[in-house]
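sry for the spam today, last one i promise. struct tokens for design, 152 residues
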């Protein structure tokens, strides 16, 4: 997986969407989401205190909607050895949406219908099942400079 430098825009998923077999053609990009934010390979502060890293950002066009996926690695959510439970991680994802995702969308002039934030205890390639991985997902609708939680 290739990670480019800070300040690079996210990759668009191939025709057919992020779940398409061609998703492997996407390039994972490290991005700076605002002046104080970290890019790939640097820790990002969240309310729980856990250190997370941005793994990739994908843009998925499907059925006339734009979904932007922010994928983070958060080792402290691991089953058995982790110290961060889902309730804490959910607050972290809410924070990431407000503090990082909204500025990113504005910086790149993106209009997303949905934003999906995922935390995984390890780097799992997009679309690849891994029964050993712990993963949390939340979806949001960005509206009027806020993130509205969307139940899956």
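last one done:
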């Amino acid at each position: 997986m290739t990670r480019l430098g800070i300040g690079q825009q996210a990759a668009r998923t191939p025709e057919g969407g992020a779940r398409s077999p061609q998703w492997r053609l996407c390039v994972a990009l490290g991005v700076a989401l605002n002046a104080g934010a970290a890019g790939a390979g640097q820790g990002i502060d969240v309310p729980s205190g856990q250190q997370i890293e941005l793994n990739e950002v994908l843009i998925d066009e499907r059925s006339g909607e734009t979904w932007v996926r922010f994928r983070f690695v958060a080792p402290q959510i691991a089953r058995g050895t982790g110290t961060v439970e889902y309730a804490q991680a959910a607050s972290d994802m809410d924070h990431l949406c407000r503090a990082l995702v909204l500025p990113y969308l504005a910086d790149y002039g993106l209009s997303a219908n949905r934003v999906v934030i995922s935390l995984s205890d390890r780097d799992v390639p997009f679309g690849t099942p891994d029964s050993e991985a712990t993963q949390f997902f939340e979806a949001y609708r960005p509206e009027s400079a806020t993130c509205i939680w969307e139940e899956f």
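Residues 86-107 form the longest helix (22 residues). ok im logging off now
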